[in-house]
Amino acid sequence: MRRRVLLLALPAAACASPPPPRVEGPPIGYGHLTQLRLDVSSVEIDGRDPLPGPGDLGRELSPSAVDAVRIMGRDRLSAFGTENRAVFSVPRAQITRDRQGGGGVFSGGPTERLEARLAARLEIQDPNGRRLGFAEAETSRVRTGVDSNPAARRAAAESLLRQAMFDLNTEFEFQIRRTLRPYLTEGPGRGPAPAAGVEREALPPS
């Protein structure tokens, strides 16, 4: 009887698929990029979270989608003046999923569609809170055919977040240089920064 049990267990083990690999790479961060120096006395990061979407996978990641956008704000912005303040906020940061047809590689079940939607906003305010200027950036990325296996889904969501953050970082700097150029400063002195190209980080692999 014992021999029969062992023989019956072998096909099940042979059919088992290894879990998909986790996304490898350094933690999300932008300290290696040149900071955007603002002619303000302080940079504040708004700690209020945006409303989550239904079944938001972005909240389950580490860092979460919201925290990833805040990391970008903390790493890229610095105060380099004596008056006014800059307020960085996250209007949107979510990764939603929808079910698709077909079979997944790991689960054999239906696949899913993931969509990352991220947004960042920077306001320049005077001491009374009056808005002097602002810049906004937003991006979205979609990945289809994602296996519904939880491990595969998480790995795909982490990869998608990194790709979307690459896009957001690029667009964020572009919008600041386009709309808030009078509040950018370089070197030891104050005054508008000269025109400069957008600095890009290396695009992570898909």
Folded structure, characterized:
- The structure is a single chain.
- With 206 residues, the chain is an alpha/beta fold.
- Helix content is 27%, strand content 28%.
- The chain contains three helices and six strands.
- Strands 2-4-5-6 form a four-stranded mixed sheet. The chain has a two-stranded parallel sheet with strand order 1-3.
- Strand 5 (111-125) and strand 6 form a beta hairpin.
- The relative contact order is 0.18.
- This is DUF4136 domain-containing protein.
How much helix is in the residues?
25-40%
Distance between the termini: 49 Å
* Gyration radius from CA atoms, angstroms: 22 Å
The number of distinct helices, counting runs of at least 4 residues, comes to: 3
Strand-and-helix sequence, N→C?
HEEHEEEEH
Q: Point out poorly predicted stretches.
A: 1-21, 188-195
Per the CATH scheme, the topology name is Double Stranded RNA Binding Domain
How would a textbook summarize the main sheet?
4 strands, mixed
Strand content range: 25-35%
CATH architecture: 2-Layer Sandwich
Give the C-level CATH assignment: Alpha Beta
Write down the overall geometry. elongated
Number of strands: 6
Number of domains: 1
Q: What class do helices, strands and sheet pairing give?
A: alpha/beta
Strand order of the largest sheet: 2-4-5-6
Overall pLDDT score: 82
